[in-house]
Amino acid sequence: MFKKLLLLFTIQILILNPSISMEKETTFDKKLFDKAQSEGKVVVVSSWIKYCSSCASQMKVLNKAKSDGRLFDIKFENIEYFSFDVTNKEIANLLDVKFQTTLLIFKDNNEIYRSLGETTEDLIYEALKKAI
């Protein structure tokens, strides 16, 4: 009986809190960020913090777009995606990010999009599509 309850509890935590089941890591690197911009790529940056389920949801949408390789009718190859832990003050200050689940899009060395807490696939995809 105890094992069944423990299994049920574990499954509920993983389903209800995707941040636990999704590994997050900082991929932002200033040199790679600058290089991508100098190559004319659209640069997407998202911020997260440990145990944040909306961060995990946003990252899931962005990773899906990247792994699918397409967004609607456009290819993802011209988009570079980075993420970072918002507690990393150096990166947060560089990008003027104060909260987790902040999504930034840069094009031609300018920030063209910023949202806070956006996790809706259609809205994120539309912002990416407009950036291309």
Question: What does this protein look like?
Answer:
There is one protein chain. This protein is α+β, with helices and mostly antiparallel strands. It has one domain (24-131): Glutaredoxin (3-Layer(aba) Sandwich). The chain is 47% helix and 23% strand. The chain has a four-stranded mixed β-sheet with strand order 4-1-5-6, sandwiched between helices. Strands 2-3 form a two-stranded antiparallel sheet. Strand 2 and strand 3 form a beta hairpin. The chain is globular, with a radius of gyration of 16 Å. 27% of the residues are buried. The model is unreliable at 2-22 (pLDDT under 50).
Brief account:
This protein is α+β, with helices and mostly antiparallel strands and 132 residues long. It has helices at 2-16, 18-21, 30-38, 53-68, 89-95, 121-131, and strands at 42-48, 70-71, 74-75, 79-85, 102-107, 110-116. The chain is built from six helices and six strands; from the N terminus they run H-H-H-E-H-E-E-E-H-E-E-H.
Keywords:
single chain, 132 residues, alpha+beta, 6 strands, disordered N terminus
List the helices and strands and how they pair.
Elements: H1 2-16, H2 18-21, H3 30-38, E1 42-48, H4 53-68, E2 70-71, E3 74-75, E4 79-85, H5 89-95, E5 102-107, E6 110-116, H6 121-131
Parallel strand pairs: 1-4
Antiparallel strand pairs: 1-5, 2-3, 5-6
